[in-house]
What we know:
By secondary structure, this protein is of the alpha/beta class. It has helices spanning 17-28, 44-50, 55-71, 84-94, 108-113, 115-133, 167-187, 209-219, 238-250, 269-279, 303-309, 317-331, and strands spanning 8-12, 32-37, 76-78, 98-101, 139-143, 156-157, 191-195, 199-200, 223-226, 232-233, 236-237, 257-260, 267-268, 285-288, 299-300. The longest helix has 21 residues, at 167-187.
Amino acid sequence: MIALSGRRIVLVGGSGFIGHNLALELKRRGAEVSIIDGLNVNNFLSFRAAKNKDYKFYLKILHQRMDLLEEAGIPLYVQDARDYFSLTDLIVKLKPQTLIQLAAVAHANISNKDPYSTFDHSFRTLENALDCARDNFPHFIYFSSSMVYGNFVKGLVTEQTYCDPIGIYGALKLGGEKLVIAYNQAFDLPYTIVRPSALYGERCVSRRVVQVFIENAVRGLDISVNGDGSDRLDFTYIDDLISGVICVIENEASRNQTFNLTYGESRSIGELASIVAERFPGIKLNYSAKDKLTPDRGTLSVEKARTMIGYQPEFPIERGLDRYIEWYKGLITEKGPEF
Length: 339
């Protein structure tokens, strides 16, 4: 086992949904955590530029992230990871023992609509981080996605299942995995690839399905389900993913491996919608056509992570939803939602 206490850990793209939650827990466990983030993608700069009808509410969530990081004493270096030389100078200065690559466009629909920006903010930042790391040999952790599998032919996938992604996002994530493995082959850079699925939890602004359902319910709006509700996802609460990443960092057995880090049991989207509706009586469910670029998914087996690194997910959707909804209610004023 590798001790977290005192370990130098750098998160590139670390002020996002996953990153800030991970940084807070690592700091709580005694690690020396630093964040590098340009605040461009799904963050302050993008929301201020877009100024859609909900941007003030999402800025409030982003400020909550920053407040928590500041209170925890976690330094944030505002640096665009697309700038190779500036990123290199910063990483050399911080001397990470673990480097976690999170900088990316983390939304399939956005990726399919804007491939250039997706490549620029996801693949270019990955290559820069890898090249910065190759001379210092930190443990390099890459966040991939369940989307690399494409359609789940049998409803369940393992890390050995053939990957056949659909659309820009899944293809780019699989390409990222191949690049990480290539750096290990060429430079002996130790790595771990993580494949999450259907994440949800506090301070997410990515408009993932659980977030959208809850926000509609809080507003008193109908919940719109893409498809007939039978599609299944392995919904994963953020705390389970964070515990899995900590297992990855602490265990030598994780080196040069790929892990599914999910709850490990899929549920239908219709079931998710019904659970949310039960907690907000009077909410109606509507169904619409499914996006053709959305693969048929299901359960990601987490047996490899359980066996090799001791991963133990603890949050079925009901338990995770209750926590998430309670947090949302705390953001709403007595006059109603601020969005």
